[in-house]
Design a protein that fits this description.
Low-confidence stretches: 22-44, 207-214, 407-420
Structural class: mainly alpha
Distance between the termini: 60 Å
Mean pLDDT: 78
Order of helices and strands: HHHHHHHHHHHHHHHHHHHH
Largest sheet: none
Shape: elongated
């Protein structure tokens, strides 16, 4: 195996408990395959034993967390608000880009992300085996009676069920956050919109898109009906309330009521595959954002006309009505980069509502004579950012190319009112 493969595997194994709880260094197998599988039976046993221990330790921490909950916390969904405070506050303080650089120096983000997803899926499967007996009709009936005035503590049966729900919820939250950091698009969780974004990504809350889309293609055919039932169990797309999310997650996990009939293997598989789907969904979302940011960085670095860059980008974005998330992210990032790298703050652009293309052409005419190919390149990249160039975008690009070629050779005086 390659040196990079050994680096990733060893770092991931040393980092095995970070995604669960507090960082703890564990013994690393002397050699391992690039897919994260030990190359000898002794190494495999060592790795599996360490993973099992890490999961059991985290289950103990989760049990202590649940002891602090009341039955009303569980029934109302408030348990999730408390989990977010506990699971993310200290975690996001220590897990940043530098944290991963120290452990995976020189390794591309894609490789580390794949390793994190595999690690999380492995932990989820191990936990599923330990919690397989939690989902019974009697437990679900008890769940429905929670919150009575005489109930001051969480019943033991519900505690077992909640360990599974809390463990997987925390695991997927931290996995999604890790992936955002690794792709250099970290989330500011003090911002409610950013927090809601993390929840949407971590739990694939627009659940229909997972069941209908291609995400389940990675799942064995035998498991697909159950996976689709899991993701169709309730839809949450608008209510930005942590307790509501908590009720949603608990409701979705009730599907596991049928698992004990089949046995532990199905419980293991459901936890594993839903975590894999969540991780790959997060990878798709945050990798795409990193791609858009990378495009914006390149455009700003190469731009010789940063003020006109913003206007050209907006003109092309609006060619077909605009509105895609990728286009919005590109514009936001360009505005920030032009301000930081070129010290350009365009108040007129900031106040823009409806753009008249003639104003953009006047701005190009006001540029000093010279090569405007950077603006043509920018227009083309903006048009491609959310997919193939369509007819409306191509029409604008054609005129942009023509306008840039028609700039006179002699230096033209700027029109001050355009640059105010």
């Amino acid at each position: 195996m390659s040196a990079d493969g050994r680096t990733v595997h060893r770092a991931a194994k040393a980092d095995r408990s970070t995604i669960l709880g507090e960082p703890a260094m564990t013994r690393i197998p002397a050699d391992a395959g690039s897919d994260g599988v030990a190359t000898t039976a002794d190494d495999a046993d060592s790795g599996e034993g360490a993973d099992q221990s890490a999961v059991e330790e985290e289950r103990s921490r989760v049990r202590e967390f649940i002891k602090e909950l009341s039955p009303d916390d569980i029934k109302s969904g408030n348990w999730f608000a408390k989990l977010c405070t506990q699971a993310l506050s200290s975690y996001t303080e220590k897990v940043d880009w530098q944290y991963f650089q120290e452990r995976y120096e020189g390794v591309p983000a894609d490789t580390i992300v794949d390793q994190r997803i595999k690690m999380a899926a492995r932990y989820a499967a191990l936990e599923g085996g330990l919690s397989a007996g939690a989902y019974t009709a009697a437990v679900i009936a008890t769940l429905g009676s929670l919150g009575g005035a005489s109930s001051a503590t969480v019943p033991t049966a519900i505690t077992t069920l909640m360990i599974d729900v809390v463990f997987i919820s925390q695991l997927q939250l931290r996995l999604a956050y890790d992936i955002s950091v690794l792709y250099r698009v970290p989330l500011d969780l003090s911002d409610p919109e950013e927090m809601w974004k993390l929840l949407r990504v971590a739990f694939t809350i627009k659940s229909g898109e997972v069941a209908r889309g291609g995400a389940t293609k990675i799942v064995p055919a035998l498991m697909r009906p159950l996976i689709k039932r899991f993701y169709s169990k309730g839809v949450l797309s608008a209510a930005k309330s942590l307790p509501i999310v908590g009720k949603f997650l608990l409701q979705r996990n009730v599907i596991k009521i049928g698992i004990p009939v089949v046995g532990v293997p199905l419980a293991v598989s459901l936890n594993r595959w839903t975590t894999l789907i969540a991780g790959r969904h997060a990878r798709t979302v945050f990798r795409n954002e990193a791609r858009v940011v990378e495009i914006a960085e390149g455009l700003s670095e190469r731009s010789r006309h940063p003020r006109s860059l913003l206007w050209v980008a907006w003109l092309v974005k609006e060619a077909d009505g605009g509105g895609s998330d990728d286009e919005a992210l590109l514009i936001r990032t360009l505005v920030r980069l032009v301000r930081e790298q070129h010290q350009v703050v365009d108040e007129r652009f900031a106040r823009l509502v409806d753009l008249d293309p003639a104003e953009v052409w006047r701005r190009l005419d006001a540029e000093p004579a010279g090569d405007l190919s950077d603006l043509v390149d920018a227009g083309e990249r903006v048009a491609e950012v959310d997919g193939p160039v369509n007819a409306q975008e191509e029409a604008v690009l054609a005129e942009l190319r023509e306008r840039c070629r028609r700039i006179p050779n002699q230096t033209r005086a700027r029109e001050p009112e355009l640059w105010a």
